[in-house]
Amino acid sequence: MADTRYNPYITAQEQFDKVSRMLELDEPTRSLLRQPLREYHFLIPVRMDSGKVEVFKGFRVQHNDARGPAKGGIRFHPQETADTVRALAMWMTWKCSVVDIPLGGGKGGVICDPHSLTDREQEQLCRGWVRQVSRNIGPDTDVPAPDVMTSAKHMLWMLDEYETIRGGRYPGVITGKPVSMGGCLGRAEATGFGVVYALREALSELNLDPGKMRASVQGFGNVAQNAIRLFNSLGGTVTAVSCWDQAESRGCTYRKKDGIELEKLLEITDPYGGVDKDRARDMGYEVLNGEEWIGQEVDVLIPAALENQITPSNISRVSGSVKVIAEGANGPTTPGADAVIREKGIFLIPDFLANAGGVTCSYFEQVQSNMNFYWEKEEVLEKLDRKMTAAYRAVSSLASKKNLYMRDAAYVIAINRVAEAVRHRGWV
Fold it and tell me: Does domain 188-354 have CATH number 3.40.50.720?
């Protein structure tokens, strides 16, 4: 969404087309899987605190539900587009498939800027979104979750509105809820931890000691923060993080050569992952341009912000010291940059494998909510580790056996599973 000339849906379809040819999928299956099964576009009128009514545009896209209910987050973002939501829904289908959970792919969004909305206005927006799609979501059809600039409080407002409309209790219709209201312990850590579980396995295969690895991270939201936390626990050092400066409407990279101090940095970070620049300087951080995260002399790059961040225009800035790229964000690398990464011999852990920890834990929450029985945090994270490790090893094994790029291997596994489900159901 950072570049209006970039269309993530075209990228998602190009990635699919490449692998569909490798799998020799028949034309009906290719046509069915390269576009959403259904999508909903709607308007949400909200009476603002000023008394004025503003109308917001919302979306819900269900890409494919052959393997189970659609699953995917809801973004609040001023540059949201229908094609972004379509792409993210498609990537969610492959993400659920590659980690082998019985869910399909969906995604939602609202074109808005939460920074400029009060809590009451955000609540009305959440309730309005649900009113528009209440007939099209549900525990056994489509299960939304938080995404960029939405959180547990937004999910609870949505759950309450859904239950009010339906006249019952349906905790499994929404995941990412507050733990006290049926949320899953470990959910906050899940996506970031999942990135590092996959990274840990990659470093082991490459005979690299995590304790000697230095990393640069783009983003400082929930995913990045928890990835940094677990990476540090493995002995690794994060020397730079990049985040958005809301006050100046631009990105900034915060660098500390001996390693950032996560907990202290969090003390000067707002709820959207923005860091107080002046206080960061007082704490000894260099404040650089937001793009500088990609050029750091580190071993690992973790893009954990938005799509379209590693492109042909900046891939040349990646240091020769970089050995691994672990994609914590959805679609951070464009196809043109992907080709260069492969040529450089940088080991890549693709987005829909690396960041599948979030949807995996969302699945755990959905199961628990539907059973009304909840697991302890340690059990959740152990299950998550096993699931992520198994998925990573399956992809890595296929990549090695067939001499495939890791992204291609992940797509082969994911798309083949969905294609089989479509055929078994008799849809094609």
Answer: yes
